[in-house]
Specification:
By secondary structure, the chain is of the alpha+beta class. Helix content is 30%, strand content 20%. It binds iron/sulfur cluster.
Length: 328
């Protein structure tokens, strides 16, 4: 491991001051960063320990929830208000990793975790544009069963590994960010980038900015939300495809709907096309299938992952049917 400086921040402002230098990284649960440091993929010159800062869940002024960036994943999933008002978020977190990792991992770290593309981690044997810009991408012609089908580029076909972020994208979550130059908010759907020509640039955060909290807007029909993850093993496996959805169904019509996909793109994939076809329409099997077809119309499969296209369509249909049936 490359030597680094360690300091423990005593407040958010202290963390911003310590973190505001090139090469610094924040350390919270360490469940991804420490792995990356052991593999010498991440080589921070300084680690700022932010454990315990911004670690509360509170009601927001608008009637939603503000979840501190340092709240542990397991604490979010167990929170009674989250479970009642945003069940998809609790389900998504519980679908991720293992109980031990969820007990350590934090909300901010979950959002900023990096891809689990095996070529990215294979420092000595594989080419990777995300790890070493301009080097090439061995996943393009390699074993790419787990890789992206939407929004990828010739530079990178990696997926974002988070389950929690798929639910947050569906719920219109807002990321609260603070840095040397002040505070701002970013819709979660806009925080992560698609790979384009620069897959090493993964979010729009500036080097000095910290995620301090996530805001869940008040969304009454989020109580009718769920998350389904399709994976190779029943636990401790990343999504082949996952779907987070919420639906407001009245008189057999989708009065409103939110839909997001995981395991298919470099970022949590909000299914805006499908939503616009569903909204205001009578909920039929044919309509749901047409919406799923539209969302996946631009999918570009690789050698090993064409199955994800049909899997995504069927998972969308299954999840929306579950929500419709739960209303009856
Ligand atoms: Fe690297 Fe992306 Fe290619 Fe994986 S898919 S090897 S992360 S460039």
């Amino acid at each position: 491991m490359t030597p680094f400086q360690y300091s423990r921040a005593i407040s958010i402002d202290d963390a911003i001051r310590l973190h505001g230098t090139v090469g610094a990284k924040c350390l919270a649960g360490g469940t991804n960063l420490v792995d990356l440091m052991r593999e010498a993929i991440e080589r921070p010159t300084s680690l700022v320990d932010v454990t315990g800062l911004s670690a509360t869940i509170q009601e927001s002024a608008g009637g939603g929830l503000i979840i501190g960036a340092a709240v542990r994943n397991s604490a979010v999933a167990e929170d009674p208000v989250v479970r009642m008002r945003y069940p998809a978020l609790a389900r998504a977190i519980l679908a991720g990793a293992s109980a031990q990792i969820r007990n350590m991992a934090t909300v901010g770290g979950n959002i900023l975790q990096r891809t689990r593309c095996m070529y990215f981690y294979d420092q000595d044997g594989s080419r990777c544009n995300k790890r070493t810009p301009g080097q090439g991408c061995d996943a393009l012609e390699g074993f790419n069963r787990m890789h992206a089908i939407l929004g990828s580029s010739p530079s990178c076909v990696a997926t974002h590994p988070s389950d929690m972020c798929v639910a947050l994208a569906m719920l219109d979550a807002i990321v609260h960010v603070k840095g040397i130059r002040g505070e701002r908010t970013i819709p979660l759907t806009e925080l992560h980038f698609l790979p384009g020509n620069n897959p090493e640039v993964e979010t729009q955060l500036a080097y000095d900015e910290l995620i301090v909290a996530i805001e869940l807007p008040a969304l009454s029909f989020a109580q009718q939300s769920t998350y389904v993850k399709v994976r190779d093993r029943a636990s401790y496996a990343f999504a082949l495809v996952s779907v987070a959805a919420a639906a407001d169904v009245q008189d057999d019509k989708f009065k409103d709907v939110r839909l997001a996909l995981g395991g298919v793109a470099h970022k949590p994939w909000r299914a805006f096309k499908a939503e616009s076809l569903l909204r205001g329409e009578t909920a039929t099997v044919e309509l749901i299938r047409a919406a799923a077809e539209a969302e996946l119309a631009d999918a570009k499969p690789l050698r090993d992952n064409a199955f994800k296209i049909e899997l995504a369509k069927r998972t969308i249909a299954s999840v929306l049917s579950q929500l419709l049936n739960s209303k009856q």
